[in-house]
Amino acid sequence: WYVSYVCEVEAAPLPATSSQVGVDVGTTWFCITSDGEFVENPRHFQRGMKRLRVAQRTLSRRKRGSNRRKKAKAAVAKLHRKVARQRLDFHHKTAAKLIRENDLVAHEALNVLGMGKGNLARSIHDVGWGQFFSLLSLKAASAGRTVIAVDPRYTSQTCHECGHACRENRIGQAKFRCVNCGHTANADHNAAKNILARALPSVQNVEVMRGLRSPGLQSGE
Ligand SMILES: [Zn+2]
Questions:
Q1: CATH topology of domain 20-212
Q2: What are the pLDDT digits (tens) for 172-200?
Q3: Edge to edge, what strands does the sheet with 146-150 contain?
């Protein structure tokens, strides 16, 4: 038997902060904000992932149908659950902080993320980001905040200072130097600023937005 119930609750809007933030998710860092905050994947989570990989290797060495394989399988499943719980907890805390501190949170839309940045390392992380982004939207809805998902294409190649976009702007994984205006920045920080800038036109006027805010107003995607 399963019982599920749904209840409608009044949103409890948080006081306005007049801050807005863009969030760039990555593989080296969990995310980097347009304010220049680098959010690391928690250590215990990284350790858990490592243990999981070791357990998976052990499992693949065990003979099919053997008792030791059964044991190894159980160990992998247990680690999986632990890592998933750790990730969920970290996502909750990170999303809660962003929602508490900002009226508007902008992030990359996931459905086109693969298209824009197209590499395997990122697509592996997509699952996790999907969970994080939906937590952001849920928390925004109950706190009267706004979450906007923007088209991520070229956010990592476009200069935030002058708008010039080309592949040569990126020097390596972490560094950004605009070939047009010479602006230098951390590449992901630059991208986070572009993500925020893309979200702003759809908000049009933050003052108007704030005036319109009511407990029932839900936003985001
Ligand atoms: Zn430039």
A1: Nucleotidyltransferase; domain 5 (3.30.420)
A2: 788 999 999 999 999 999 999 999 999 99
A3: 38-39, 31-33, 20-25, 104-108, 146-150
* Residue environment code for 186-207, b if the CB has 16+ CB neighbours within 10 A, otherwise e: bbbbbbbbbbbbbbbeebeeee
Measured distance between the N- and C-terminal CA atoms of the chain, rounded to whole angstroms: 33
Q: For Cα atoms 161, 163, 165, give the angle at the middle one, nearest 5 degrees.
A: 125
Q: At 186, which amino acid appears?
A: N
Average pLDDT per 10 consecutive residues for the chain, totaling 221 residues: 86 91 89 95 85 94 95 95 91 96 94 52 65 94 94 93 95 90 95 96 64 46 39
Question: Active site residue: 37, 40, 103, 108, which one?
Answer: 108
22 C-alpha to ligand 1 centroid (Å): 19
Task: State yes or no: is 188 an active-site residue.
Answer: yes
Query: For residues 38 and 32, is the Cβ–Cβ distance under 8 A?
Result: yes
**β-pairing verdict for 31-33 and 20-25:** antiparallel
Which amino acid would we find at residue 198?
R
The answer to whether residue 35 is catalytic is no
* Assigned token pair, 137: 């939207």
20: nearest Cα among 145, 108, 187, 136: 145
